[in-house]
Amino acid sequence: MEPIKRDPTEHALWEDIFGIAIGVTVCGLGLLIFRDLGLTVGGTAGLALLVHYGTGLSLGLCYSLINLPFYLFAWVKMGWAFTLRTLATVTLLSVGLEWAAGMIQFSRLDPLLGTWVAGVLVGLGLLSVFRHGASFGGSGILAAFLQDHFGIKAGYVQLAFDAGVLALAFVMLPVGALAYSVLSAIILNTLVAVNHNRSRYVGVS
Q1: What does the domain layout of the chain look like in residue ranges?
Q2: Predicted TM-score (pTM) of this structure
């Protein structure tokens, strides 16, 4: 029998690989739903969607390029192990989006239901990779870096970044799509806020 680990959050390597793969899969599916609905969301994923709409470049390529500057902050803030896992996670998601984009098509998507499902999927994907020591890169890492080095609260940085993405969406998207995009950001962030709380799910001695 496998011994009980002192730290219940510790995972074996295969568990981390499997958890990250699950996170990449569900997040990628959520982003493809957003893409087919012509919506966006907060964070670098939302920015990648807007760049994809505006330039015609593939979504996977946009996501990969936008994340490049954030690896430096990840290295400084989180260390090399987290950075390498994040690089692998972002790469897997980018490649997966490229591969799946031509294989998955939605013949009919109700915007309201699609918004809910996509927001939930991306949120669950974030939770899965968080709990296995990685991330999808982006503004959250920058927010943590600025808080530690300059005293700027991470929540304010994240809020400002998301507001900037939605402000750009205001210029690029129709009013209806913008409203659904705001709703999707609320769904996603609420899901993460409610569930990404270690003290609720891990016994504290």
Answers
A1: 14-196
A2: 0.83
